[in-house]
Amino acid sequence: MLYVDSIKALSKVLNSLSKTFGKSFTETRLKPKFQAMLNVPDEQYDTLIQSGQSALTKAIVPVFVSGVLSCYNTEDDRKQLATFLQDTIATLAVNHASMDSIQLAFAELHHNPTYHELLLTVLWNGVVDTSARVRIVTANMFTLLSKNIHEGLVSSRIVPALITLAGDEEIMVRIATVPAFGAIIESTTQKETLDRVYLQLQHFLDDPQYKDELSMLVEIIRIFGVVGPNTEPKFRDEFILPRLAAIAHTNNNTSSRNRQSEVAMGLFEAYSALSCCFISEVQIRDAMLPGLRCLRQDLETLSPGHEVVVSSMIKDLESKISGRERRSWIYS
Predict the structure, then answer these.
(1) Whole-number Å distance between alpha carbons of 289 and 38
(2) Class of residue 76 by CB neighbours under 10 A (exposed 0-12, middle 13-18, buried 19+)
């Protein structure tokens, strides 16, 4: 666990120290100390990193990045920073190590728009990396960068990179792009950008090659539940709700009990999140209720406890419709 407040405080102290004593002090004293701590002996490389015992997986990484490497902003300083970030991502990724340290380092730099272009350049190098593990991690990192960034950069840099990864030869890389697409849906209002994201999600759902990819389907359902309450109502009503209903209907006829169970539980979480949204009577009747009734049918045998909750949700929605109809009749 990395303690964010402590990291911020220590980074601020080191940043002030670097600026007080000058660049020469930073280059000859501070950087060598951190580099020595981050160095991993060749004979211990795999075991230390994979076990999480290396400094590369610790708070020292975000402290070094935000407190020392980003203290000065010359071309050479930015090059050193970019190289360190890129090398650390690759090292942690190929060794299947925790990415918490580098994610926190990215998050700290992300607060400063000055570094947005640099961070995107680092991630683009990850997009074209030969290692599938690096490309997966890169897709995950885009989820962080897709928020609180200029929409022009989302359109011109992030979406093209994600679409490239969405066409990757490795299915796990493609799946890893789904949360980042979801983050864009939550954070941007540009119609052209959103349309490109919608088309990519539609492709994931409709392309026959993904028909048997359970992991992809479950991840899309999960993201629908995450972004549904925060996205524009038009997308929720015209895409998310009808798609969830179709998935629930198909799941009724699934022969694999394991697949049926995973999809049903994903749908349960998504519908639970969406139930707090204002949904029109038409969408409740045409999409929400049909999907929930299909889900209830699955849960009757898969998880009776969850079936009770879904039945309650259905009852509440039916009451809303009947209540609106009565009010309409009274005032007509």
Answers:
(1) 55
(2) exposed
